[in-house]
Amino acid sequence: MSDGTADANHTGKDSTDTDSWKQELPSFMQNFQRFDWILWGLLAASGIYGLALLPFRAVLLIDYTFVYTVLSGSSLSVLALTAENEDNVGLIVATVLVAAVSMVKFLPLFYLIGKRWGPMFIDYSFMGHPPLWFRKLENFIYRHPGFCLLLSFIPFSPIPATIIVVIAGIKRTKGWVIGAYVLVYAIALKCFYVYLGLTFGATVRETLVTIERYVTWITFALLGYMFFTMWLKSKRKKARLHTMDDAHGLSNTDGRAEKDDRITKDDAN
Predict the structure, then answer these.
(1) pTM listed for this prediction
(2) Rounded Cα distance, 86 and 198, in Å
(3) Segment 71-92, tens digit of pLDDT
(4) Average pLDDT of 60-70?
(5) CA dihedral 228, 233, 235, 236 (to 10 degrees)
């Protein structure tokens, strides 16, 4: 009798642990299949790729500008290469095309994510607290994703193209249409930086040297702040889950105690 009770308690504990583990996952991850894990792995790889470039971007921008263009699609690298090669039209055209393709290389992944995981991924991306611009423009973005993509490619725009592409995937917009929009807008943006490089070429190098002097330390400070914020949020979330588990455990204990009391009374009668 006691062995059976112990086995039941052990099974119940395993079930509770499994439920607790699932609670830590975003809702769209709780029934993942093989393709979902592939998408998740590619998403994680794209994030790691971006983080790995951050500490080296200043050095790459100054000393290995074309390499940086290939790796990141940086608009500043297009500006710098144009300023240094004003008479080399072939190199400028190649730089624009390479930078445009590199800039949008991960957007097809976000289109597939939107198509597969739906609006829950956007909630997860914003940690349940979407910024003001998204709350104001959400309905408009769903109605006009092409125009909103244009807004996202304006220099220093606060609207990330990734979110617009995810919404296009949610809407099941044709992939080739979104791809055409993205590529055209990216080329237009790089052409704007070509214009800046041709117009202000003489002062570009000095500006980039100044940027290199400070950007590395700023980058490390931002990385440190980002990881600290992630750790703090994770710690708070685990604390909330432990509190819920403890409350659930106490409820189960009370229920088992009442059941044992009833069994004891029945045996006595």
Answers:
(1) 0.71
(2) 6
(3) 999 888 898 899 888 889 999 9
(4) 89
(5) 140
